Amino acid sequence: MALDIKRVGGTSLQVENATGHWVIFTLDELRSHSALLSAGSVEGTPALPEKDAELFVWSAFAAARGYAVEHGLIAGG
User: Fold this and answer.
1) How much is the pLDDT for 44?
2) Tens digits of per-residue pLDDT, 25-43?
3) What is the pLDDT of residue 1?
4) Is residue 66 within a helix (H) or strand (E), and if so which, with residue range?
5) Distance between CA 31 and CA 48 in Å, rounded?
6) Which helix (H) or strand (E) element contains residue 6?
């Protein structure tokens, strides 16, 4: 799944997939190992089926967290 990650403001990252669906994570959420991830946080139309949205939000979180660590936005660990 190809994902495009970009900064939104100074404290958030937006992750978008090839179908134009996206989710935004704050840096605080990416620092947290207990962030509440919800398929309902996926934006875009038409809505993704529940299972696809769930898979997307988890993969988007992992990609955004890796990006944030790699670019020094949050500490790794």
Assistant:
1) 96
2) 999 999 987 778 899 999 9
3) 65
4) helix 50-70
5) 26
6) strand 3-8
